[in-house]
Amino acid sequence: MIRWVLWLLGGIVLGGMVHLVTVLALPATATRDAYSRLLPITPVNQVVPLPEPVPANALLPFTDPAFAAAVCRYDLTAAPLKLTAPVSQAYTAVSFYTRKGIAYYAINDRAAGRRVIELDLMTPTQHADMPEEEDVTAADRLIVESPTATGLIVLKALAAEPGQMAAARRALAAARCRPQPQ
Questions:
Q1: Among 167, 180, 178, 7, which residue's Cα sits nearest to residue 88?
Q2: d(CA 89, CA 77)
């Protein structure tokens, strides 16, 4: 009897370890992640509005239909990036993700405190190579360091009512994501 209990306990422990390894390895081996799904429709370093989410074929998972969304697929290998996003009437948020989908920074219109969210995106090496400017303070310039050279910037604007969706889409259409001149 004890032998059966030990075999059963061993099987449960082994099954738990296999399950844990599978769950942890799955995101790294996925071939249809958000970056891969957006690759054909988004040019590098340009803001592209996303179509309205439909349950059967959403480009990004768990997209709220009350938000207009746009994406900038960035590549920092040549130069740092300048992001400018005007805020919408209700709420605007900007989130930054690595190529593997790991979120590393987010800001909204309330935290920015202005009518335009404006920031510089660069790698730590590019940030270290920047010349020191005495007349520019940290309050004047928001610098975000990307842990990877490629990734996604997701911009969202809330349409509090269905009639405000067009205004939210216009606000996102005015967003810019461009390399900075050297």
A1: 167
A2: 35
Q: The whole model's pTM is what?
A: 0.81
- Do 58 and 1 share a domain, yes or no? no
Q: What is the mean pLDDT, run by run of 10 residues, along the chain of 182 residues?
A: 91 95 82 81 91 78 87 92 90 92 89 83 88 59 89 93 90 91 69
Q: In whole angstroms, what is the distance from residue 105 CA to residue 117 CA?
A: 14
Task: Count structural domains, the chain.
Answer: 2
Q: Which helix (H) or strand (E) holds 101?
A: none
Give the structural domain span for 50: 34-179
Q: Do 18 and 76 share a structural domain?
A: no
Using CA atoms, how far apart are residues 112 and 137, in angstroms rounded to an integer?
A: 15
